[in-house]
């Protein structure tokens, strides 16, 4: 009897064990304008030689030397999000995390007595300036930090005065957001210089210019502030009294100047960008003799130097990445962001985030093992490739020739994803910036037959299609009536489900075919009469197979875009401007041209509106795709 009970219990336990299912692996792939190949470099001999201080495949940048010259604190993306790390200059120990968080930390500075650090963080959402005691042997928590600025706009690049009483910083808080002069959908910020006490009080605006002014640093006697300004169109160095008065150009002629750092004897270190080669270097400029000293220049890109009067120098940089076979037509360097995936937990599941270093869509295969991308060549020919990003092998899938009797020879692939039934790759050929009447079309490439089939006509600007799991329902945007609307193609019938004068785009449909999400400017904010911001809307299928009135899902005054459903239809992910930008625009945009550097990937649960921010960084992120692998 006892043996029977044991056997029965064993069967029950085994039965329970076998009944458990492995939770699906949720993977999110998104485009990222992130650079590659930056390390921290140090000189201990007054700039005679430089050697790597860090050695990690992820980005390391924005290093600062502690006042006692024993420590370097820098930003690293080795754990996914940018966080502050520390390394002992004298000891041969490894870099370690200094401030733990689930947000971004960057742009650190020390109080002159070495007791405090200030830095930029997205801990409360947008970029604010925070303060923590500097304890180099401990791991600090951003939850204990004091938010000094606590402002809904972005605050950047804090700099302690030499007496420790004041902090200068830049902020985009007092300028209206404006459309980009070439890409009006991309909204731009403008920054000015401010000061506050070391406790965050008495915030004073020091500059007011239509061009960005940033990266303030103090003169040795604290009477003046040196900064860069883009008021003339080219970044140049200026100085002013700490009150903001007596602004004076001190920049060397014909040089592009960022990130000034003062040295003794009237010398200024700055980052220079060669306008022709787009290469960056650190130069020294004497404001009295007007002489440029290039003795610090290395044979690779150099950014954001810091100097200590003991003869220490640090900066970040590295060799410019090469064009890689596995990222044809994309950014120089690898296809994936280094150290991917980043793991993020949202409510009921864990996500693996993969940043794909391309400007346009590069979807994963359904099993997530390969990434597909395109490269245009010979004016009207487009090749499609698949890279196994673990094995770094590349396979050419097929080639497509643009029909120039239907589309402009400048047309390109502007959207691409696999159909949920795993049978086809759908892609849009057209003009990214075209109006409603610019021809565009959607195609399917059948993975089994290798055939390419058009699934829309060429009337108007058709594109950005998505399919239900059973492939019976397709949604796409079209300008066939003269305005951009959302259409449903089902059972041989084409239905305009928005049908208004507003601009709609980026439609997606849940796998079950019963919910559609899209972007619309119907309630958007008008920016200078050139563009209206867009929000995300959801429509549900009714019992009679018509579509209900739209529900507005987002209401932020900026841009939202590129929604995509989770495979189970419970979540929607999208890219958002809601959290603003996280660094000074002139420091980020020249590295990889990114007119809308504010993109952050966000997830929202449809049943209750619960929202999670998935990315925290200063690079443009967009076009997320969510797949599940069992």
Would you mind describing this structure in some detail?
By secondary structure, this protein is mainly beta. It folds into 2 domains: 48-310, TolB, C-terminal domain (Neuraminidase), CATH 2.120.10.30; 325-629, 6 Propeller (Neuraminidase). Helices cover 3% and strands 44% of the residues. The strands form 15 sheets. The protein has a 4-stranded mixed beta sheet with strand order 30-31-1-53, with no helix packed on it. Strands 3-2-29-28 form a 4-stranded antiparallel beta sheet, with no helix packed on it. A 4-stranded antiparallel beta sheet has the order 4-5-6-7, with no helix packed on it. Strand 21 (224-229) and strand 22 form a beta hairpin. The longest helix is centred in the first third of the chain and has 18 residues, at 2-19. The chain is elongated, with a radius of gyration of 27 Å. Mean pLDDT is 92; it is low at 1-20.
